[in-house]
């Protein structure tokens, strides 16, 4: 008997672990572990948990069509998987386990622990590098080191893409069954989560709808992506990130669809298609960084000198940021979008992250953790990479002296205030031209708004932020000189 262990690869199409298990010609079964205490420690968003649960129900049906039963088990933590999996292997005489490698530190340790346990048995663990187009550590420079800067990484990544076949693999053919599998298929596992869930019904979860969304974006909308992607009032993004995060679709599927509709996407002449390809490569880049630098999974900034920054620990200001009550309309509208929908436009993620770190001077890790607790597309590498970039503590991050002006960003990327109007209903009486800075209009009118004044002076906060970073850098230089 073969066993496929599903983690963040909840699909039957383009799933190398499933495909290899089915090649054996033997009966196959599958397992998924809910680990609620582990998920809580990782801060998984309840809305993402609901998306995973719904996807598992689809996956269970898809696997049944292949004569493969999906077992569902709940254990508290990753370490609790060991005895459960060992018992499962013994009960069903599992010869091989197949799974796709995760790159975060806890997940790496989980797999190493399982491998050690199984090495004492007759069961073999087969782990495949398939989460990225190219495995972490395989896109390297002339010195044999991984890239720490995105642009040369992208160049090398595209060059390798042109040399290799990375087409997605199809759905395997149905496998043979035995009496054990037949009995399991007749009584499928009930998929009921113990982890708290928030309704994710606004995000379709069946294959046909997801693939149609991917096809429509690549065929009809990607052409305008470059020009429109930074404007949150315009539905210009692919909205595929939640499905990539849980593995309902793969990067290979996205890449194949992009190529089929836009043959020139590999160079800048491809316009929006090339820009979207760059976003896919950013996801790969952060996965490679996460896999190669385990300290990132321990909450460390990539730039070690930033460890010396003294952050503001003001819980009240942090709460105002979380609630969307900062007095900066674009920041507040973005946070309310996140809190209500579990998703936030990428330009807004950069704006609110910059505001938290460089206007409120609050530790970027607070924001990173809060995002994970809310995002339906929560992915450690992508979320951590984005926060480290915005906070100027990561690899190839924006310079620390680059500080987004939230009002200027608002005027540039929501010029018609359509996005702000959608989320800040208490500002209905404020005219469009005054909506980026409503307190100024209210002062002239001599009225009080049911909306806060700005909780910080941006100009002064910017100067303080730059001083904080320069002081930390100076401390490192002093320490180096003394050592």
From TrEMBL:
Its cofactor is (6R)-5,10-methylene-5,6,7,8-tetrahydrofolate; FAD. Its EC number is 4.1.99.3. GO terms for biological process: photoreactive repair; response to light stimulus. InterPro entries: Crypto/Photolyase_FAD-like_sf, Crypto/Photolyase_N_sf, Cryptochr/Photolyase_FAD-bd, Cryptochrome/DNA_photolyase_1, DNA_photolyase_1_CS_C, DNA_photolyase_N, Rossmann-like_a/b/a_fold. GO terms for molecular function: deoxyribodipyrimidine photo-lyase activity; DNA binding; FAD binding. FAD binds at residues 225, 237-241, 276, 279-286, 377-379. It catalyses: cyclobutadipyrimidine (in DNA) = 2 pyrimidine residues (in DNA). Binds 1 FAD per subunit. The keyword Flavoprotein applies. The keyword Lipid biosynthesis does not apply. Coiled coil: none annotated. Involved in repair of UV radiation-induced DNA damage. Catalyzes the light-dependent monomerization (300-600 nm) of cyclobutyl pyrimidine dimers (in cis-syn configuration), which are formed between adjacent bases on the same DNA strand upon exposure to ultraviolet radiation. Belongs to the DNA photolyase class-1 family. This is Deoxyribodipyrimidine photo-lyase. It comes from Enterovibrio norvegicus FF-454. The lineage of its organism: Bacteria, Pseudomonadati, Pseudomonadota, Gammaproteobacteria, Vibrionales.
């Amino acid at each position: 008997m073969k066993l496929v262990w599903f983690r963040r690869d909840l699909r039957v199409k383009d799933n190398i672990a499933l495909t290899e298990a089915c090649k054996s010609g033997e009966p196959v079964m599958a397992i998924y572990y809910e680990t609620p205490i582990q998920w809580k420690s990782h801060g998984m968003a309840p809305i993402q948990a609901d998306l995973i649960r719904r996807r598992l129900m689809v996956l269970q049906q898809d696997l049944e069509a292949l004569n493969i039963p999906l077992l569902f088990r709940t254990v508290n933590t990753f370490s609790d998987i060991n005895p459960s999996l060992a018992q499962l292997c013994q009960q069903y005489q599992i010869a091989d386990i197949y799974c796709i490698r995760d790159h975060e530190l806890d997940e790496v340790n989980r797999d190493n622990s399982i491998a050690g346990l199984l090495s004492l048995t007759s069961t073999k663990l087969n782990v495949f590098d398939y989460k990225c187009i190219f495995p972490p550590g395989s896109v390297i420079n002339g010195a044999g080191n991984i890239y720490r800067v995105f642009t040369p990484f992208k160049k090398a990544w595209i060059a390798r893409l042109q040399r290799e076949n990375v087409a997605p693999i199809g759905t395997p053919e149905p496998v043979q069954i035995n009496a054990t599998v037949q009995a399991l298929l007749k009584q499928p596992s009930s998929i009921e989560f113990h982890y708290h869930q928030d309704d994710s019904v606004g995000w379709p979860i069946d294959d046909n709808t997801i693939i149609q969304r991917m096809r429509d974006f690549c065929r009809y909308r990607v052409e305008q992506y470059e020009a429109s992607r930074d404007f949150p009032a315009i539905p210009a993004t692919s909205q595929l990130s939640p499905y990539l995060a849980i593995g309902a679709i793969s990067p290979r599927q996205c890449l194949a669809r992009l190529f089929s509709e836009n043959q020139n996407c590999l160079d800048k002449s491809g316009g929006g298609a090339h820009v979207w390809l760059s976003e896919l490569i950013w996801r790969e880049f952060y996965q490679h960084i996460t896999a190669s630098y385990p300290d990132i999974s321990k909450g460390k900034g990539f730039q070690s000198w930033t460890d010396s920054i003294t952050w503001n620990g003001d819980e009240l200001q942090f709460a105002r940021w979380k609630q969307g009550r900062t007095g900066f309309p674009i920041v507040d509208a973005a946070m309310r979008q996140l809190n209500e929908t579990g998703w936030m436009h990428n330009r807004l993620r950069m704006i609110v992250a910059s505001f938290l770190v460089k206007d409120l001077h609050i530790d970027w890790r607070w924001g990173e953790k809060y995002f994970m607790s809310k995002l339906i597309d929560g992915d450690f590498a992508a979320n951590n990479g984005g926060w480290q970039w915005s906070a100027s503590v990561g690899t190839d991050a924006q310079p620390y002296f680059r500080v987004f002006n939230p009002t200027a960003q608002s005027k540039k990327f929501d010029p018609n205030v359509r996005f702000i109007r959608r989320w800040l209903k208490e500002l209905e009486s404020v005219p469009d031209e005054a909506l980026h800075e409503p307190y100024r209009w209210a002062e002239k009118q001599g009225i009080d708004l049911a909306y806060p004044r700005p909780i910080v002076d941006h100009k002064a906060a910017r100067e303080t932020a730059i001083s904080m970073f320069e002081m930390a850098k100076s401390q490192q230089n002093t320490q180096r000189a003394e050592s």
